[in-house]
C-alpha cells in the first residue's frame, strides 16, 4: 500500500489493494475491465482481507494522531469515521465466522460468481476473449467457496437447511438440462463466432462447476446442517444489523415503531381500497388491480416501459428538484437472469461510467405486468432512487474517495434514500390512485419486514392487538401468513422474501430505518434554516445530501441536519 497522508488517500489505496485481492471488486468498479480471475472465497483469502483491514486501521490511527489537537477537517473526518466503522465491523463478522456459512438466496458467493459476467464489457473481441478465460476459471470460485463451507462445517457453523435447499433450487434453474441449455451457454451465445469453441468449452466448465456445487450442498452440506435453527439470536442479529446499516439498534424500540408504522400504513391502505373498490380490503383491491388494472404485456415491452419511465423522470426532475449531471442521465432497464431472487434490484455504474447504472426486473416466468406495483418500485430502483444517489456518488468521487462512494456504503443510507425517493415522488403528486396503492403496498412490505425480521430472529411475541395470532411467537410460517394478509405481492415473491430475511438477518430493517433517518435529517435541516431566518431550498439540500457519500445510520441524520 503506497504511503497515504490523508484518510481519503488511505481509503483509495485500500480500494485498489482490495481489488488486487478480490477481482469481483475490480470488475464491479470497472477498475480492470479485462481481469479474468474469479474471486477466491476461501478461508485463506478471508485472512488476507482481514490482514489488509488491520493494516489500514493501524495507518488510520497514525494519520489521526498526526492531525494533532486541531484534528481532521470535516471531509477527512467523515472518511476516517466511515473507514473505521466499516472495516471494524467486517473484522468482527469475520471473527464470528459469518463468511463460513454464507448460504442464502441472494448475495452469496454462489450468486456473486455468476453476476460478475453481467458486469463485464461485451463490446469487443477482446472483451469476449476475457469472458471465455474467466468462465473457464469459474470452478475456482466454487472450489474456494466449498473450502469455506467445509471450514464452517468443521467449526459447526452452518446455514439453516431452508437456505441450502433454496440455493440448490436456484442452481437447478441455472443449469436446467431440461431446457436444452444452461444460463452460461445462453450468455456466451452472443459472443463472436471465431471464439465459439472457447466460449462453449468455458460454459461447459462453468455449468459443471454449478452442478458440482449443487451436489455438494445437497449430499454433503445439507445433512450436516440438519437441525440448525433459522433464528440467529440476539448476538448475531445485532452484529449483522450494524454490518448492514452502520448503526447500533435498540430492538425493543424498533419493534414497537415497526408496529406503529404497520398500523399507520394499514389505515391509509384501507381508505384507498375503499376508493378503488368499495367494500374491499387492501389485498382484495390489489387482486382487482392484478386482473383489471393497467398492465404491460410482454417481457421486452415491460423492459422498454421501465426504460421510458426512468428517462422521463430524469427529464422532469432535472433542474427542478435535482441537478442531474450528464453521465447520470444514462440508466438501463434490464431483465434479471433466471434463478435470481424475486425482488428487483440495481447495479451501480463503473467508476468511469463506461458501464451505466442498471435496474433489474426478475420476471419469475411472468409475461403480464400490472403497472400499479411497478411505478414506485422503479422510482426506488432507478430515478430518483438508487440510480440518482449511487451514480451521483460516482460523479463526486474525485472530491471524496472511491471508498466513500462505492464499497464503503451500507444499506441503511442507500435503501433509506430509495424509500425516501418513493415518498418524495408521492409528495410531488406523481402517483395516481392505482400507483399509490402500489406505493403503500411497498411501504407496508418494509414495515412488515421490520416486524417479522426482528420477530423471527429474536423470538418476539405478536402484540395482543394484532389482527393475526396475538400473543404467539413469530415463526417463518406465521410470518408468511401475516405477510400474505397484508401484501399484494404473489405468494412465490413473499416466500422468497421470508427466506431472504432468514438468511440475511438485520438487512431487511435497514429500509424503513434508513427512510426514518432521511426524513428526520430533512426536517431538522429545514427547522434550522427557519430558525436562522433563511429559506430552505430543497433542491440544494438534495444535492448536498447526495454528495456526502456513504455514511452509517449512526452519522447520517446528524450530517443531513447540518446541510
From TrEMBL:
InterPro entries: DUF885
Top-level taxon of origin: Bacteria
Protein name in the entry: DUF885 domain-containing protein
Organism listed in the record: Georgenia halophila
Amino acid at each position: 500500500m503506497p504511503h497515504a497522508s490523508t484518510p481519503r488517500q488511505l481509503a483509495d489505496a485500500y480500494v485498489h489493494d482490495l481489488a488486487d485481492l478480490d477481482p469481483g471488486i475490480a470488475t464491479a468498479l470497472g477498475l480492470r475491465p479485462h481481469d479474468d480471475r474469479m474471486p477466491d472465497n476461501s478461508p485463506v483469502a478471508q485472512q488476507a482481507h482481514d490482514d489488509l483491514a488491520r493494516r489500514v486501521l493501524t495507518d488510520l490511527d497514525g494519520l489521526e494522531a498526526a492531525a494533532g489537537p486541531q484534528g481532521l477537517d470535516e471531509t477527512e473526518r467523515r472518511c476516517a469515521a466511515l473507514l473505521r466503522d466499516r472495516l471494524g465491523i467486517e473484522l468482527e463478522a469475520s471473527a464470528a465466522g459469518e463468511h463460513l456459512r454464507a448460504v442464502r438466496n441472494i448475495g452469496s458467493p454462489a450468486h456473486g460468481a455468476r453476476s460478475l459476467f453481467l458486469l463485464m464489457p461485451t463490446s469487443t473481441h477482446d472483451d469476449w476473449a476475457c469472458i471465455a478465460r474467466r468462465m473457464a476459471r469459474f470452478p475456482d470460485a466454487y472450489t474456494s467457496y466449498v473450502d469455506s463451507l467445509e471450514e464452517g462445517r468443521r467449526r459447526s457453523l452452518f446455514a439453516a437447511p431452508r437456505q441450502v435447499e433454496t440455493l440448490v433450487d436456484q442452481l437447478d434453474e441455472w443449469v436446467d438440462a431440461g431446457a436444452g441449455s444452461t444460463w452460461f451457454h445462453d450468455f456466451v451465445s452472443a459472443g463472436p463466432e471465431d471464439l465459439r469453441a472457447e466460449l462453449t468449452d468455458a460454459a461447459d466448465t462453468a455449468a459443471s462447476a454449478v452442478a458440482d456445487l449443487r451436489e455438494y450442498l445437497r449430499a454433503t452440506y445439507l445433512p450436516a446442517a440438519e437441525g440448525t435453527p433459522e433464528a440467529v439470536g440476539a448476538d448475531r442479529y445485532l452484529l449483522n444489523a450494524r454490518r448492514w446499516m452502520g448503526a447500533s439498534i435498540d430492538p425493543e424500540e424498533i419493534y414497537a415503531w415497526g408496529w406503529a408504522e404497520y398500523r399507520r400504513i394499514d389505515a391509509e391502505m384501507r381508505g384507498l381500497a375503499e376508493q378503488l373498490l368499495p367494500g374491499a380490503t387492501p389485498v382484495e383491491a390489489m387482486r382487482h388491480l392484478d386482473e383489471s388494472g393497467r398492465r404491460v404485456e410482454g417481457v421486452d415491452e415491460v423492459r422498454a416501459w421501465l426504460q421510458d419511465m426512468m428517462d422521463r423522470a430524469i427529464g422532469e426532475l432535472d433542474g427542478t428538484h435535482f441537478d442531474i449531471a450528464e453521465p447520470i442521465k444514462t440508466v438501463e432497464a434490464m431483465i434479471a437472469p433466471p434463478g435470481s431472487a424475486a425482488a428487483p434490484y440495481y447495479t451501480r455504474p463503473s467508476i468511469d461510467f463506461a458501464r451505466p447504472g442498471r435496474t433489474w426486473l426478475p420476471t419469475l416466468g411472468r409475461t403480464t405486468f400490472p403497472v400499479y406495483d411497478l411505478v414506485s418500485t422503479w422510482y426506488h430502483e432507478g430515478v430518483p432512487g438508487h440510480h440518482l444517489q449511487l451514480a451521483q456518488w460516482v460523479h463526486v468521487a474525485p472530491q471524496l474517495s472511491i471508498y466513500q462512494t462505492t464499497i464503503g456504503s451500507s444499506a441503511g443510507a442507500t435503501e433509506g434514500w430509495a424509500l425516501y425517493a418513493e415518498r418524495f415522488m408521492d409528495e410531488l403528486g406523481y402517483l395516481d390512485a392505482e400507483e399509490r396503492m402500489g406505493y403503500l403496498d411497498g411501504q407496508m412490505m418494509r414495515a412488515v419486514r421490520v416486524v417479522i425480521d426482528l420477530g423471527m430472529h429474536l423470538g418476539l411475541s405478536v402484540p395482543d392487538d394484532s389482527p393475526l395470532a396475538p400473543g404467539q411467537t413469530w415463526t417463518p410460517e406465521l410470518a408468511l401468513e401475516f405477510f400474505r394478509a397484508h401484501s399484494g405481492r404473489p405468494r412465490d415473491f413473499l416466500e422468497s422474501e421470508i427466506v431472504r430475511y432468514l438468511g440475511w438477518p438485520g438487512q431487511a430493517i435497514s429500509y424503513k430505518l434508513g427512510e426514518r433517518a432521511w426524513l428526520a435529517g430533512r426536517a431538522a435541516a429545514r427547522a434550522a434554516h427557519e430558525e436562522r431566518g433563511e429559506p430552505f431550498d430543497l433542491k440544494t439540500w438534495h444535492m448536498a445530501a447526495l454528495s456526502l457519500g456513504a455514511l452509517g445510520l449512526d452519522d447520517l441524520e446528524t450530517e443531513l441536519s447540518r446541510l
